[in-house]
Design brief:
The longest helix has 19 residues, at 110-128. With 255 residues, the chain is an alpha/beta fold. The relative contact order is 0.18. The two termini are 22 Å apart. It is globular. α5 runs antiparallel to α8 (158-171), α5 (110-128) crosses α9 and α6 runs antiparallel to α7. α10 (214-223) links the parallel β3 (200-206) and β4. The chain has a single domain (3-252), classed as Rossmann fold (3-Layer(aba) Sandwich), CATH 3.40.50.1820. The protein contains eleven helices and four strands. The chain has a four-stranded parallel sheet, covered by helices on one side.
């Protein structure tokens, strides 16, 4: 999220690593609700008795779990290009061939998925320690045109590029096991259902998202007790073109 936009709305952003990322301890036996309990403990430690929740992409499950298990703490829930629940027997494939391979391995050969994620993470970390421009160009080559354009816009200034590189380095600190576990978590029961999330959930989704079929996002919106679904032009990063509107709506919940 843009630091400038956050400051303009006096919004404080606290980004909590999921298990296995950064310096967060891996928890292979845990689930989304375990993360929610950890997040509630952290916000209590920080003295935050009420806060909004944002889940991006694979962070949708943890964000919805926090809203479902601790509605006394959560003022609003926003999901950007989030992965919805899927049943273990459900068969679907993203438009991205690379992502389709990862999901296929998560179902059929998790040991091979972990190796692939390890190699990918190692390569990303190596590139991230080099020239930032070269890294960004490498990432762009693996993206569809809409997302490549969105990424260029997001990292157009030096501070944003530095933050992007730092995030990649931090995410690869422990290797690729967490990346593989993310996919495995979404193939297991969540421990709660979308209907268990009280209050309004705001969904933002690109209509040409290659990672998660839009049909799954529409189904999630229908399963929630209250949902506001915004389907906007673009890919997986489409919601970031609407940061000011998203943050403005979250800030308005404080009043």
């Amino acid at each position: 999220m843009s630091a400038k936009i956050l400051r303009s709305y006096s919004v404080r952003l606290v980004a909590m690593d999921r298990p296995g990322y950064g310096m967060s301890t891996a928890n292979p036996a845990g689930g989304f609700t375990d993360w929610a309990h950890d997040a509630a403990a952290l916000t209590g430690h920080l003295g935050l008795d009420r806060f909004a929740v944002i889940g991006v992409s694979m962070g949708a499950g943890p964000a919805l779990a926090l809203a479902a298990t601790r509605p006394d703490l959560v003022t609003s829930t926003t999901i950007l290009s989030g992965m919805p629940p899927i049943t273990p027997a459900e068969r679907w494939a993203p438009d991205s061939r690379g992502d389709a391979l990862y999901w296929r391995l998560a179902r059929r050969a998790p040991w091979l998925l972990r190796r692939l994620c390890s190699v990918t993470t190692t390569m990303t970390g190596t590139f991230a320690r080099g020239d930032a421009g070269r890294l960004i160009r490498r990432v762009e080559r693996g993206l569809p045109d809409a997302d490549a354009r969105a990424l260029r816009e997001l990292v157009r200034d030096a501070d944003a590029r530095a933050a992007f590189v730092a995030d990649l380095l931090e995410s690869s600190r422990q290797g690729g096991a967490a990346m593989a576990e993310d996919l495995r978590l979404y193939l297991r029961p969540w421990g709660f259902g979308p209907a268990d999330v009280p209050g309004l959930v705001c969904l933002w989704r690109g209509t040409d998202d290659p990672k998660v079929p839009v049909a799954l996002a529409r189904r999630l919106a229908a399963q929630l007790s209250q949902a506001s679904a915004r389907f906007v032009p673009g890919g997986h990063f489409a919601a970031f073109a609407h940061q000011e509107e998203i943050i403005g709506e979250i800030a308005a919940e404080r009043h």
